[in-house]
Amino acid sequence: MTWTSIFIAGFITYFTRMGMITLINKDIFNENFRKILNYVPSVVFPSIIFPGVLFDDYGTLVVITDPKIYGALTAVIVGFFSRNVILTIASGLISYWFLIFAL
Amino acid sequence: MSSKFQIFKIGFFDVSPHLLSVIPFGIIFGAIGIELGFDPIMTYATSLIIFGGASQIVFLQLLSGGASSLIAITSVGVINSRHFLYGAVLSEYLNKLSLIKKIFISYFIVDQGFAVSNIYLKKNKEQPFNYYHLMGSGITLWLCWQVATILGIFLGSIVPEELGLEFAIPLTFIAIIINELRKLDHLMVIIISGLAATFFYNAPFKSYILISPLIGLFAAYLILKFKK
Questions:
Q1: Of B55, B88, B217, which has the smallest distance from its Cβ to A20's Cβ?
Q2: Interface of A with B in 2-61 (CB under 8 A)
C-alpha cells in the first residue's frame, strides 16, 4: 500500500511540474496574465519563508525574541545591500547560531 | 553565442549557493525517514519518485502517524501544486521544445532551480539553448538531493539537530527574492503572501502553500489594475 501511495504521489507531483509546460499552449495566456505571472516568485517564496521563520516544529507561532526572527532580519539586511546569495544565507545562519550558542 | 554545455554550467553555478540548504535538508530527510520506521529503499524511493523536499517529509510523517494514504497523497499534491505556477511561467520559454524534451525537463523543476533559471531565461529569451540553464540547475539539485538522501539514510543524523539547519531553507528563499524588495509592488505582494501564509498555516493538507500564493496573485492583479 505504501509503495502504491509513493507512486501515486510521485505521479501527481510530476503532473504538477509537467502539466502547464506540456499541455498548455502559451498563447492562451494574454498579456495581462503574463504580467501577473511575473509575480510568481514574489508570491510563492514568501509562503515558504514566513512560516519557516515564524513557526516552530510543532506549528506554534514563535515569540518575538526567537533567534530565527533576528537571523532572517540579518539575512534581509545583508542580502539587500550585498546582493550576494552566499553572504545572505551565511549571515542569517551565523547570526542565528550566535544568538543560540553565544548568548 | 554560448554552447549548450556553457549554459548548463551557468545553471550549475547559479544554483550552487543554494546547495548550502539543499544538502543538509536532504541529509535530514534521509535520517527522518529511517527514524519514522521506513526502510532505506522506501525512504530513498520518495526522493527518486516524488522528488519534492518538504512534501516527502510530510508524506512519510503522515503515513507513519497512521493517516490514510489518501490524506498523505492529497497533502503531497497540495504542497507541490505551486509547480503549476512555475510551469505557467516557464511555458513561455519552453514552448518551442519537443514534447520529449518538455517531459524530460519537467522532472527537474524545483523551487531553487526555477528561481535562478527564471532570472536567466528572462534575460536570455532569444538564446537558442537557454533551457540548458534549467537543466543545469535542475540536474544539479536532483543529484545533490539524491546523494544527500542516501547519506542521511546510512549515516543518520550526522547533521547535529542543535544547529537547526532547517532554518537554511527560508534563508535560501530570502536570498532568492531579495532583489524584489527593491520594487514597491513586489514588496507589497511579498508581505501580503507571507502574512496570508502565516494566517492560513494551520489550514488542512498544508493548503496554505496554495492559498497564500493565490491571494498574493490576486493582490498583484489589483496592483496592476491600479497602476493602469
A1: B88
A2: 2-10, 12-14, 16-22, 24-26, 29, 32, 34-37, 39-55, 59, 61
